[in-house]
Write a structure and sequence with these properties.
The complex is a heterodimer of chains A (about 270) and B (about 260). Chain A has helices at about 1-15, 20-45, 60-70, 70-90, 90-95, 100-130, 140-170, 175-185, 200-205, 210-220, 230-260. Chain A is mainly alpha-helical and about 270 residues long. Chain A has one domain (about 1-260). In chain B, α4 (about 110-120) crosses α5. Chain B has a 6-stranded mixed beta sheet with strand order 5-6-7-3-8-9, with helices on both faces. Chain B has a single domain (about 45-70, about 85-250), classed as 3-Layer(aba) Sandwich (Rossmann fold). Chain B has helices spanning about 20-25, 60-65, 85-95, 110-120, 125-140, 155-165, 185-195, 210-215, 240-250, and strands spanning about 1-15, 30-45, 45-50, 75-80, 95, 170-175, 205-210, 220-225, 230-235. Classes of the chains: A mainly alpha (about 270), B alpha/beta (about 260). Chains A and B meet through α1, α5 and α11 of A and β1, α1, α3, β5 and α4 of B.
Chain lengths: ~270, ~260
């Protein structure tokens, strides 16, 4: 626990040393939320019936998609670039010269990304509610929190896989490049999965992001209780249970590969 | 019982493309043999200097001893433990300062960097604070509250050595420990080296150097040339610093 706390404290100190970055990021989110609010106004008149299960309006639908898919981006690109940076500056090697378990190195580097992302999501939803009339009043809080935990647990495992990819391939990360793009396409970030052609809709069933966004929208926008969201919860739990052990095995294999190549620090 | 043993260690580096790495294809690039069947040991409390020209394999030797690079053949034994001991077990007994890149966080202060690595070594808050203050004082490290990126090269070098000492390791591996230090700093660090950084006769230290007078401080000197251990003995057997200087300038033996 103290090692995890050390990772968090370290990342917080580095993060706090870039105060301007915080304001810039908040500004970026506000512009994104505003842009999608106006896109929503543009298309709401002829909105697809596929939006009806989410209340019929596009802006709340896409805002939830944008906000909670951030966990995917943070895990896949955030952790990957953080570990790549650690490799380049030699701190990955320095950390491996301590008796820190490999799983803890992965989780330690991931944790602050996830906490930071949760803050970003709060800004997304806060801006939507305060500035653009997003109605969060009917949200079922317990269901939302359970789904949030399962979303983080399942999507973050992909981050460890992605980080392994970038440590191994250095200049590009095939996991984020292929899997991340595919998941954003079929996972329902920008449009309901129901409008996809049959074969893509089938593919969406194999993507954890689909269940995460569907569950979060049902809990937050439609106020569905946990009992009605069990299929989504079960799918996310299954993804987490399968993907985490795979991700940790791949990460350990990658580190061993780097030790063999002599490239724990950049060469 | 030796504190550290390298047994017939061989290491080759390949220029491997990402695709070749994934598909386990034969390496397309040239092969560099960093170490060829090197066997060397250091007993408890011994000060062992490793010298040799650039590219002789000195840093690779230290990193293999620390478990940061895996050898292609041969084994490393720390404190007589079986060679298959895990990385975590080895890191409890070993400290390494090999700084290229140095592996510190630019935006953290020197003290914050040390606090982070002390926690990763499993030191509690009080023990970490005590060890950090001890090592800062011992290495005469100035301005620990300044950011790492603001340090001079010499201060960065001292911080590197300080980090390796945090968990009071039985075996210390130092890659050119006096690099970037001014003459006074070099003298001070050499005094610490011969005093085993306060651990009297307990601590084993293996260090690399390009300076004959520094190598002459060691109990024994190992000469690496072109990845091969070409000589090993007391500094006197090389004729002291002057003799060592000649030996260190010796051209690499032709590759077999």
């Amino acid at each position: 626990m103290s090692r995890l706390a050390a990772f968090l404290a370290k990342d917080w100190r580095i993060f706090a040393s870039y105060r301007a970055g915080l304001a810039v990021r908040a500004g970026q989110i506000l512009f994104t939320v505003a842009a999608f609010y106006f896109i929503g106004r543009l298309i709401d008149a002829g909105a697809s019936p596929a939006l009806a299960p989410y209340g019929g309006a596009y802006f709340p639908f896409v805002l939830l998609g944008l906000a909670f898919s951030r966990y995917l981006s943070a895990s896949m690109t955030g952790l990957a670039s953080a570990l790549r940076q650690e490799q380049l500056q030699g701190t990955l090697e320095a950390v491996l010269a301590t008796p820190t378990p490999l799983a803890l190195i992965a989780i330690g580097n991931l944790l602050s990304e996830l906490i930071w992302t949760t803050g970003e999501i709060a800004v997304y939803l806060g801006a939507g509610a305060v500035l653009f009339g997003l109605d969060l009043g009917s949200a079922d809080l317990p269901a939302s929190l359970v789904l949030l935990a399962l979303t983080v647990a399942s999507l973050s495992s992909l981050g460890v896989l992605s980080a392994s990819g970038i440590l191994l391939f250095r200049e590009f990360d095939p996991v984020s490049w292929m899997l991340g793009g595919l998941m954003r396409l079929v996972g329902g970030v920008y449009f309901p999965v129901a409008i996809l052609p049959g074969w893509l809709e089938t593919m969406a069933g194999w993507v954890p992001l689909t269940y995460a966004l569907e569950g979060m929208r049902q809990a937050v926008l439609m106020g569905r209780p946990l009992a009605e969201l069990q299929p989504m919860c079960a799918a996310l739990a299954a993804f987490a249970l399968v993907l985490w052990p795979v991700a940790l095995v791949v990460f350990a294999w990658t580190i061993r590969r780097l030790q063999r190549d002599g490239s724990l620090s950049f060469r | 019982m030796p504190a550290l043993e390298l047994l017939n260690v061989t290491k080759r580096f390949h220029r491997v493309s990402a695709l070749a790495r994934l598909c386990r294809m034969p390496p397309p690039g040239p092969e560099v043999t960093a170490l060829r069947g090197v066997s060397v040991s250091a007993s408890e409390g011994e000060l062992l200097a490793v010298v040799g020209p650039n590219g002789a394999g000195k840093t690779t030797l230290l990193k293999i001893a620390a478990g940061l690079i895996l050898p292609d053949a041969g084994a490393v034994r720390v404190a007589g433990a079986p060679p298959d001991r895990t990385r975590r077990a080895i890191t409890r007994m070993l400290g390494i300062a090999a700084g290229d890149p140095p592996g510190f966080y630019d935006r953290l202060t020197g003290r914050e960097n040390l606090r982070f690595f002390a926690a990763l070594h499993g030191l509690g808050r009080a023990a970490a604070s005590r060890r950090i203050e001890e090592t800062l004082a011992r290495l005469e490290l100035e301005a620990p509250e300044r950011r790492y990126q603001e340090y001079s090269a010499g201060t960065k070098q001292r911080l590197l050595v300080a980090r390796a000492l945090l968990h009071d390791p039985a075996v210390l591996l130092l890659d050119e420990p006096t690099r970037s230090l001014d003459p006074a700093g070099q003298l001070g660090l050499r005094r610490l080296l011969t005093g085993r950084f306060g651990a009297a006769e307990r601590r084993t230290i293996v260090f690399t150097t390009h300076q004959p007078e520094e190598a002459a401080l060691a109990d024994r000197v190992a000469v690496l040339i072109d990845g091969t251990l070409s000589a090993l003995g007391a500094p006197a057997s090389f004729g002291g610093p002057a003799g060592l200087a000649g030996f260190m300038r010796r051209p690499a033996a032709p590759a077999s």
